Prior knowledge:
The protein is an alpha/beta fold. It has a single domain, classed as 3-Layer(aba) Sandwich (Aminopeptidase), CATH 3.40.630. About 25% of the residues lie in helices and about 15% in strands. The longest helix has 30 residues, at about 115-145.
Amino acid sequence: MSFRVITPRAAETAxxxxxxxxxLAVDALTLPTLxxxxxxxxxxxxxxVDELYAGAPDVGATLLVADYSRYVCDLxxxxxxxxxxxxxxxxxxxxxxxxxxRDTTEGQRALYQPLSREELERRLATFYRPYHRCLVExxxxxxxxxxFVVLLAGHSMPSxxxxxxxxxxxxxxxxxxxxxxxxxxxxxxxxxxxxxxxxRGWSVVHDDPYxxxxxxxxxxxxxxQQHALxxxxxxxxxxNETTLEKRPGGFEETRQFCTTLVAALGALDLRxxx
Length: 274
């Protein structure tokens, strides 16, 4: 199995936390296609985010964690988001970071050559579709049980904009909730990260530079009682971005923030009222 589902260890809530980018594993068939340096596998992962949200089941949430690297298949992209320079038959223009990454964020080549259509289909069948089928099932079960569901997509980001981004060289906020312009969840959901971050003195900026990726846009349907929110955490809060090591003290504080955030979302009652 390429992902893990950790069920609630306390009274269940309507929250699902998904962490699609923390994985570092690369399967044997993918490995020969990769030219990305080993360090890039860590740099381009949401390193440690699965550990930051490890307390989510202790406050009633269900936790979904992907174990494989986004270099195998980026789970936060559409199945059609395939760059023709990354895989045969692709037509999307998202280069170089679509469903299959062809470059690292540091500008190095991630692939020796475009994948064959057969290899792309193998990765979709093995990694992408099972993950999203599971996510659909988890969301449906929560909505059936509680009348609504809250999906929290847990991510991390470099503390400063990298070359090629709209915010190159600019310091980023500590927490960036992404809701596609406040369209993917109820306002009370969207504002919860700010409410939890403020007592810590952390800065919060909505939708800048990340507005929420495929998962947030696709699953966020508040009109159907399905709320989705992406939360980007600045890596400076919990790790050394050069050595990739955890920051003493900072890691635990960030982990407490994540658990408190999940608990706060779980305390919301978003059932439709007649």
